[in-house]
Amino acid sequence: MSVDYWWFFIHLSSAEETDIFPFYQNALQKAVLSNISQDILQKWRDNPESFIFINDDWILFYNRFISAFIVDSFQNFGEQLISEKLIPEWKFNENNCFNFISINRCSPVAALFYALKPELADRIPGFMGNMFIRPHEIKQALNLVEEVFNKIDYQTLNFQASSLIMGTDDAFHILNALPKALASANEKDCSLLTLAMRAW
After folding, report:
1. CA-to-CA distance for 111 and 151, rounded, in angstroms?
2. In this structure, are residues 133 and 92 in contact, taking their beta carbons and an 8 Å threshold?
3. Spans of all domains in the chain
4. pLDDT means per 10 residues in the chain (200 residues)?
5. How far apart are alpha carbons 74 and 129 in whole angstroms?
């Protein structure tokens, strides 16, 4: 059975930031990667070029790599927030959802990190695609992300991301999502919350 993987980009007002930030901090404090996730990520770091597809059991490697980007504490936080159970008065709608990427069988964040390779992926803010960037941090984060993306030509990034998700249209959205969300948050002077999740 196939599973959809999501990446949410949410803009938050000052009042929303005050309400939601403590829950993000709690998820971050509880964020733990399993031994299996740590192992597969280390294998990726040791051989980032083609560590999945050169292995005989590449399906197992692929699935473990994708699963490594779903962190239980953020999955639980995201489910409660998006389903509007965490803060009853907060509503998830078109006013605060800047972008939403849904990919079948592959985490968008996994595809982004795979495209960037470990050295550059490590510079992306947050934890495994989950981040809470407050207004005074937005410009610095935007500059950092733009610098990271400028280290590799776009065609190479697109090819690498596409090799993991088997689709160039999705790769385009994945590669442009974070810079666009940060640029918009910078213009609006608001916070940016991103959540990397599995459909539930």
Report:
1. 17
2. no
3. 4-198
4. 88 95 98 96 87 75 93 98 91 94 94 95 97 98 96 90 80 95 97 96
5. 10
